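Limitations

Structures in this collection are predictions, not experimental determinations, and the ligand pose is part of the prediction. Treat each record accordingly. The example that follows, with iron/sulfur cluster as the small molecule, is included so readers can see exactly what is and is not provided: the inputs are given verbatim, and the output is the predicted complex.
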Amino acid sequence: MKPQQSKSTCSYCGVGCGIIVQQDKKGKIKVKGDPDHPVNKGLLCAKGMNLHYVVEDRSDRLLYPQMRRGKGHPLERVDWDTAMSRAAAVFKSIIQKFGPDSVGFYVSGQCLTEEYYLVNKLAKGYLKTNNIDTNSRLCMSSAVMGYIQTLGEDTVPVSYEDIEIADCFLVAGANPAWCHPIIWRRIEKHKELNPGTKIIVVDPRVTQTCDLADLHLQIFPGTDVVLYQAMGRCLIESGDIDLHFIQNHTDGFEAYQNVVMQKSLEKSALICGVSVSDIQLASSYIGESKGFLTLWAMGLNQSADGVNKNLALIDLNLITGHIGKPGSGPLSLTGQPNAMGGREVGGMATLLSAHRKLDNPEHRKEVADFWGIEELPDKPGLTATQMISALEEGTLKAIWIICTNPMVSLPDSKRVEEAMKKARFVVVQDISSKTAGIPFADLVLPAAGWAEKEGTMTNSERRISHLSKILNPPGEALPDAEILIKFANKMGFSGFDFPDAAAVFKEHAALTKGTNIDISALDYGILKERGSVQWPFVSTDQPPSVRLFTDKKFPTPNGRAQIRISGAQNQHEATDPDFPLILTTGRIRDQWHTMTRTGKVSKLMKHIDTPFLEIHPHDAKQRGIAEGDTVVVKGRRGEVRIHAKFSDKIRVGVVFLPMHWGKILENDFARTNNITGNAIDPVSKQPDFKYSVVEVAKFSKP
Ligand code: SF4
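Predicted complex:
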């Protein structure tokens, strides 16, 4: 075998780093950062650097399709034809008896765009249900609604190159030093070269991101809206707003001003648990800046108030006119590598292809005509947690889970397990035999992983990158796109005659024509030649789409951005004497999601190898807990048993659990989502992982 070298993209976070994969004569692969890639310029974080270990260790891989003859029967090996025939027969029968909305697909922000496109076309166009949702619902849906309600469309208007231009960063509800490391390296370097650059961090915990901060506002969980509106008030009072931009390019400022000016700064500071002077200082940093970037992630999005938090933050960009110009604008940090690609193809229960709107009959007709079908269903589909409710209620009979691990990642895990038990038919399509859904599955389909299939992904800055196929998948595993095409063919559908991933991409690109995310001029050839491009991409001659809204025209009905005053605030569950502490959850540096990949890499386990509860020594002492003690963290829905780790970097009254671990020992649970609840944002339907009420006690053996 000849040594080979291919370019690809890291499959972990939404930063979207370019990678070079080298394969030696024996077929062993090595990964290094692509020095020519504009995102990472050769750098990789620990997760990216160790990608090849995940690919090489195939000990946990699913190798062939498996099927149960009936509930309670063991899984048995079958061939692909048998597996697909069973899937098609069960789906046909259920749809015939109970209608199209009795089936659903739950997919992943780690699926490639082509896979997302196919499953969306299959569900909406051919099975006639909008029940196709994704774990991106747990990640970005509040940001999506924030963008739509302010800018008119789900559009990140800036690029990473704005980092090197900005002189003020507001990092809210995010720990990019650990979770988006390569973006953070760029910010660190920029501040090193430009020490006057101001960094404001808003987080209830002192994280590694705070090491670089000029100001850390350690707010009480859930008080973000109050804080950003207080900052808005300060900016108005100091005259640091852009009246020309407001008057000519926005609506809603008067209502915004009326509300924020009525709110006392002292009271807001008290609610947030920070000082008035710190709010004023943060506002002065923003007011004095020439380039102001807001960066945020799950701290805002994963909340029962997620959309309001997004609106209040984006408002700061709008009232100061910091949008559509170099170094300025909102930059939501995508958690998953292709959450944005999934949104582009409309791969969610509430979206349509190319940012078309599901409730717009013309948009539905455009897509239906393009697919050559009569019509698309108009009823919004079930979102992630709504699917669980529908399984419980028995209205959703069959669920097909692709590339995600909902028994660990969805809130209120025990409820998810019970719901899965009620399903008539569960399909799990995955790479790993460790996926927690397998015991509940009637059909298990082995999928190809990263480097074993070709496709594209879009990162947080609208950058579409190509991923090469470098290795053959193990056993009988197949690329997800091929599995979906097999199923569509078994169902007798005619619109799935795709010879390869490039053909799927070509059709997706053609469907974007004439929309604001038009990539109709893009194909694999251009992507391979240029490495990556940002959307829109309407011609090979156009300059790069680095920054949007430079003409100050927004895709709203009147072309003006909308300054939105957030209504309801703090819709989280309330503490009480039984549950006096607030639990917040999040990532640790070297782990990814439910650890089915990073958990295999011993180098990544070196950083933190066991789950823990972060608790302030004051709260621990009050409960007679010593550092390292096993404690029971009890919430309204369940509990976890775990070691206590003292930290004065968390507020008194707040505790933290990492999100990654599932069931680790029999009768001993470290699964954080045993505790988290079913509160969702009323607009985005995104679950709240950042605010559950709990009590903590020292564990004593019964
Ligand atoms: Fe991969 Fe994200 Fe790390 Fe880049 S920053 S190497 S995309 S995990």
